[in-house]
Specification:
single chain, alpha+beta, Ribosomal Protein L30, Chain: A, 3-stranded antiparallel beta sheet, 2 helices, 3 strands, 28% strand
């Protein structure tokens, strides 16, 4: 299964509380942090919810 590298490029401050909780669920603690997660429908759904705050690329 492929993996995704997700980078937080914009702060969640000023956005809805559910979007902030989604960032926490993805594993983000600070700006410009990257996390590598398995590509799944659940992760894709969370990325879709906060797509304006993150950058997604395929990890090797």
């Amino acid at each position: 299964m492929s993996r995704l590298r997700i980078t937080l490029v914009k702060s969640g401050i000023g956005y809805a509380e559910d979007q902030k909780r989604t960032l926490t669920a993805l594993g983000f603690k600070r700006l410009n942090q990257s996390v590598v997660l398995e590509d799944s429908y659940a992760v894709r759904g969370m990325i879709q919810k906060v797509r304006h705050l993150v950058k997604v690329e395929e990890a090797n």
